[in-house]
Amino acid sequence: MAESDEEDITDLPPSAKLVYKVLEYKGPLTQKGIVEESMLSARTVRYALERLEEVDVVSEDVYFADARQNLYELTTDDAPDQQDQAVSD
């Protein structure tokens, strides 16, 4: 995580920080997936995602398996290198 992103996230509510960490550890997820992983309510997750999108650390894309849902992921600057995670696992 870049230093400027850390400063942006520091000012966010705890729910947004938790959602950020869930995406950091689990990778791209739908809102439903974030709700399941974080154990936050759907409304809280929606609010957290809105806040994270405001500071440009999360991006939203179409979830092709079910176009009614969106897929959320960390922006490329914030996403950990997947190969580094695979080596450490």
TrEMBL record:
Name of the protein in its database record: Archaeal sugar-specific transcriptional regulator, TrmB family
Molecular-function annotations in GO: NAD+ kinase activity
Gene3D superfamilies documented for this protein: Winged helix-like DNA-binding domain superfamily/Winged helix DNA-binding domain
Kinase keyword on record: yes
Enzyme class of the recorded protein, top EC level: transferase
Native source species: Halorhabdus tiamatea SARL4B
EC number: 2.7.1.23
UniProt keyword terms in alphabetical order: Kinase, Transferase
Domain of life, per lineage: Archaea
The UniProt record lists the keyword Transferase: yes
InterPro entries for this protein: WH-like_DNA-bd_sf, WH_DNA-bd_sf
